[in-house]
């Protein structure tokens, strides 16, 4: 029998500029770069992992660098907002001031689905939102890195709700509920549009997907500033193997088991074209680097180590020891 999915594992997005991306997510947002590695499906580009102090599952926001990526044309059938958890409402006041001081595009502090939020964008138009955990019950957040430029009491503690914009709500809802085991929890309004909240596991901000139906929009054309996929947490490789078998039984096209070294994965697309990943909680990021030096060097899984020289030759140097 399958165990419930535990919540968000990571979100992977696209950047065209690894250096500016690194500066924004570490120096402005105060996240820790826990792994500087390569896209395992295209080793000519970086894959950067930002998270809490050690990259605990549920705290990772990752980026593939695609230098020639065009600007995203926002639309439907997309992962349209990635939210990041902060400890309380007071933290949002800190962040609003920080964004103003750093010239970060942002909106006012608003309430969405009963929680205080602060929407903003990075330098490439990546759609992000801070969400307060002040009244949260459910999946626990991570542990901020104490060497971050952001005070621990205001720091980002993990991924919050992931928002999907789709052309046909029913198609996405059936996959979330009938296949992945999410529960439909509530609805709320964002302007003129209604969003449906689905939750899994212990629930709360770290285990919710918010879905907006927008058949009036064109399909999103992804590029820099878009999200590539969202990953959900399963606790072990044994559990992941059960999911491989289950999707096969349902005749849902999927990748089968994929070795990512830092975790194990399974990929498939839901009917609106959004890419989902199931990823194990471990082994984690400390198998090839000590905790104190996570993200400082180019880390390669063992099966790529023999290609290190040729891989490094294709990458533009990125100093992450600052």
TrEMBL record:
Keywords: Dioxygenase, Oxidoreductase. Gene3D superfamilies: 2,3-Dihydroxybiphenyl 1,2-Dioxygenase, domain 1 (3.10.180.10). GO terms for molecular function: dioxygenase activity. It comes from Cytobacillus spartinae. Residues 7-133, 158-281 form the VOC domain. This is Ring-cleaving dioxygenase. It holds the Pfam family Glyoxalase. InterPro entries: Extradiol_RC_dioxygenase, Glyas_Bleomycin-R_OHBP_Dase, Glyas_Fos-R_dOase_dom, VOC_core. The keyword Oxidoreductase applies.
